[in-house]
Amino acid sequence: MLVIVHESLVPPETLDHCTTREADEFRTEFDVVTRLRLNGHDVRPLGIGDSLGALRSVIHEWQPQVCFNLLEEFGGIVTYDQHVVAFLELLRQHYTGCNPRGMMLSRHKVLCKQILAYHRIRTPHFAVFKRGHAIRIPARLRYPLFVKSATEDASLGIAQASVVDAALRLRERIEFIHEHTKSDALVEEFIEGRELYVGVLGNGRIRTLTPWELSFGELKNGSAAIATRRVKWDSSYQARHRITTGAAVDVPAGLAGQLNRLTRRIYRALHLSGYARMDFRVRTDGTPFVLEANANPNLAEEEDFASAARHDGIEYPALLERIISLGRNYRAEWQQD
Q1: DSSP calls for 192-216
Q2: Exposure on the CB side of residue 53, measured as CA atoms within 13 A
Q3: Distance between CA 233 and CA 199 in Å, rounded?
Q4: What interhelical angle do 109-118 and 100-107 show, nearest 10?
Q5: Cβ-based neighbour number of residue 132 at 10 Å
Q6: pLDDT tens profile 22-72
């Protein structure tokens, strides 16, 4: 089995000589490769940078049954990972995770929100401020607002300053996003409430996982409850403020059913396949808003997706095997004959 990773994230054989910070850089890649080998697979990791030549050569020479795709960018551009998957389809190669169309629709946050609005799926009102254009703030925007990159993921560019309550702060944050992420800025209404994630597995027939909640713990007074980069990835910060994730508790039956139905509708509206995670905010009145749809979410053994699957009776080895099976059984265009 060929495991496709970023060229800087080819995992070592062991983590014995790595610090926690070093190991966290390639935790997902290490967990997947190690577990696949323990599952009995002949595994070959391949690092990809800005060329597909090596990928084509290895597939031609080795002819893997399936490529386990862990790429999150290509050539430093996060939206180009979909083209690597399209390349695999041109080679008529089975792969795990989402298809190119679903990746494109879900990665493009603005287009994603437009599609959800068309399907009458509630998402925060928004505006886009293009990089390189004059910033003109429309009067219809209502504070507080949340400012983020229109393309980057993994909470890049998200901090407490991302929540703004005045035009001057909004302009400053838009300029920050333009400069530091080199992308357009997406500005949307800030939804106060619980942050819930729902995992999905499947192609035509899909299965949703137990809603998972990000608990913001003991953030200091005045801090917005948002998934900043530190909240999501800094383990010492999480421990200091008692930030945790786990199966959502005290979820009304009506809300649980609604999240399940919404997740299925989103998955199909965006033509997703393989596995994904939907991010929701639920207001105190019980109204859910879709924040994002994440194709190919983090697959590290102790991260949210795998933890939710384990909570539902799918242990990590079985989860990876299910993802492989979904990849091999996905009917791409080259199989429609």
Answers
A1: -SEEEEEEEEESSSEEEPPPEEEE-
A2: 2
A3: 19
A4: 90
A5: 6
A6: 888 899 999 999 999 999 999 999 999 999 999 999 999 999 999 999 999
Cα atoms in the Cβ-side hemisphere of radius 13 Å centred on 83:
12
Rounded Cα distance between 37 and 102, Å, is 29
Residue type, 316: Y
Closest CA to 149 of 123, 105, 188, 192: 188
C-alpha distances (whole Å) from 210 to each of 31, 94, 113, 175, 201 are 22, 28, 24, 38, 12
Three-state SS for 71? Answer: coil
The encoded tokens of residue 103 equal: 């990746």
From CA 240, how far away is CA 236, in angstroms rounded? 6
Position 94 scores a pLDDT of 97
3-state secondary structure of 45: strand
> Is residue 280 helix, strand or coil?
strand
**Alpha carbon distance 63, 65 (integer Å):** 7
Total Cβ atoms within 10 A of residue 90: 12
Task: Kindly list the structural domains of the chain, giving each domain's residue range(s) and its CATH number in brackets, ordered by start.
Answer: 2-96 (3.40.50), 123-189 (3.30.1490), 192-335 (3.30.470.20)
DSSP-derived secondary structure letter, 51: -
Q: What is the pTM of this model?
A: 0.91
**Residue 205 C-alpha from the chain's centroid:** 21
Q: What is the pLDDT of residues 222-243, one digit of tens each?
A: 677 777 777 777 777 777 878 8
DSSP character string of 212-255: EEEE-TTPPTT------HHHHH-HHHHHHHT-EEEE--S--HHH
pLDDT at position 230, please?
76
CA 117 to mean position of chain CA atoms: 20
